[in-house]
Amino acid sequence: MKKLVIRFNAPVVLLFALLSLLVLLLDGWTGGVSTTRFFCVYRSSLADPLTYVRFFGHVLGHSGYSHYMNNMLLLLLVGPGLEEKYGSRNLLMTILVTALVTGLVQFIFFPGTALLGASGVVFMMIVLNSFTEMRRGGIPLTMLLVVALYLGNEVVDGLSESDNISQMTHIVGGLCGIVFGFSLARAKKR
Q: Where in the cell is the protein located (predicted)?
């Protein structure tokens, strides 16, 4: 009988989930000060070095346990397959670029609000995951459906609902997933 061994698969995804949990715990210990200071992006002075930290760090911050769990369940479901297919380095780069792009969009276009959470990264991964079956110039129907359903829903929600969910972040994350999907597919062909 084979011995079952727990494998440390998907180190980038697991580290992201663990860091997000630590940030959530730190948020509780500091009464929200740490999240506001480091893990939430909002309009601030470009002379403040923490502004640049927040451009990336906001994806690790969450408003509470439920927000954290919703993002991490999807991240842990979709992320490991992406990390196996594209490699840890490529997945880390897609996360960092998505964090920066969503942070900059928030900073530039929504000066009166703050943004935190991994949903932009999660949407990027969902869309990128639909590219995993892309072969020889063909576009998978599943990818088109994912983009239409997820991004279409976010556009409708953004126009019709006023909640604390940033549909713009989901849309930008999904668009990043499209760009990465085509870029990584093209790089793999070479």
A: Membrane
Long-range contacts of residues 8-14, Cβ cutoff 8 Å, at least 24 apart? 9/80, 9/83, 9/84, 10/79, 10/80, 10/83, 10/84, 10/88, 11/83, 11/88, 12/79, 12/83, 12/88, 12/91, 12/92, 12/95, 13/75, 13/76, 13/79, 13/80, 13/83, 13/91
pLDDT tens-digit readout, 88-143 = 999 999 999 999 999 999 999 988 899 999 999 999 998 898 877 666 566 677 77
Instruction: Please name the amino acid found at residue 180.
Output: F
Distance CA 90, CA 4 (A): 29
- Residue 81 makes CB contacts below 8 A (sequence gap 6+) with 129, 132
Instruction: Tell me the residue length of the chain.
Output: 190
149 vs 98: CA distance, rounded Å? 20
Domains and CATH numbers, the chain: 11-189 (1.20.1540.10)
The first and second tokens of residue 171, run together, are 């849309």
